[in-house]
C-alpha cells in the first residue's frame, strides 16, 4: 500500500483522531484536547493514503534520557497492513537514544514486543479515570 508519512500537525482533522481512538478501544477525548496533546509532543507521525489520514502516533520526551509513546492507532479498515510498524519506526527514529515507555491496550502487547519492548515489572500508574482503567484491564 502506498502511504504518505507526515510529521507535523498542520491540516490534521482532530475529529478523525478522536473517533479512531474510540473505534480501536483506546482512550479518547474531545478533538481539541487531542490537538493540544499532539502539538505539545516531541514527535508526531501521521499516515495518509489518498489524502485521508489512516493512522497516527506520538511521543513525548525530555530530549535527554526519557520518552513515552502514546496514541498509536490505525483506522480499523487499514489494520494488518504494516502501518502500525511504519508509525512506530518513524517515532523511534526521531527520539533520542533513551529509555522509552508506553502502555499497550490489553491484548496488543505482542505488537510492541515485536518492536523490542519488554514488559515492566515495576510499572505504576495514576489514572484520572481509575475505575474505567481497572475495568479495561490496565490496572489491578
Protein traits:
5 helices; alpha+beta; 5 strands
What's the Cα radius of gyration?
15 Å
Please report the number of helical segments: 5
CATH class: Alpha Beta
CATH superfamily: Gcn5-related N-acetyltransferase (GNAT)
Count of individual beta strands: 5
CATH topology: Aminopeptidase
Q: Low-confidence parts lasting 5 or more residues at pLDDT below 50?
A: none
Q: Categorize the overall geometry.
A: globular
Helix content: 25-40%
Largest sheet: number of strands, sense, barrel closure: 5 strands, mixed
Mean pLDDT: 93
Derived from helix and strand composition plus strand pairing, the structural class reads alpha+beta
What separation lies between the terminal Cα atoms? 40 Å
What is the CATH architecture assignment? 3-Layer(aba) Sandwich
Written as H for each helix and E for each strand, in order along the chain, the element string is: EHHEEEHEHH
Tell me the β content: 15-25%
Q: Largest beta sheet: what is the strand line-up?
A: 1-2-3-4-5
Q: List the domain count as a whole number.
A: 1
Amino acid at each position: 500500500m502506498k502511504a504518505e508519512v507526515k510529521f507535523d500537525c498542520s491540516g490534521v482533522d482532530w475529529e478523525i483522531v478522536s473517533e479512531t481512538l474510540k473505534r480501536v478501544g483506546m482512550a479518547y477525548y474531545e478533538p481539541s484536547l487531542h490537538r493540544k496533546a499532539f502539538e505539545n509532543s516531541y514527535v508526531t507521525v501521521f499516515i495518509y493514503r489518498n489524502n485521508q489520514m489512516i493512522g497516527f502516533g506520538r511521543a513525548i520526551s525530555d530530549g535527554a534520557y526519557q520518552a513515552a509513546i502514546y496514541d498509536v492507532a490505525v483506522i480499523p479498515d487499514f489494520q494488518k497492513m504494516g502501518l502500525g510498524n511504519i508509525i512506530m519506526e518513524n517515532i523511534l527514529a526521531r527520539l533520542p537514544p533513551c529509555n522509552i515507555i508506553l502502555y499497550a491496550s490489553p491484548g496488543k502487547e505482542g505488537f510492541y514486543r515485536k518492536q523490542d519492548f519488554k514488559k515492566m515489572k515495576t510499572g505504576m500508574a495514576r489514572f484520572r479515570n481509575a475505575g474505567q482503567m481497572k475495568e479495561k484491564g490496565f490496572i489491578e
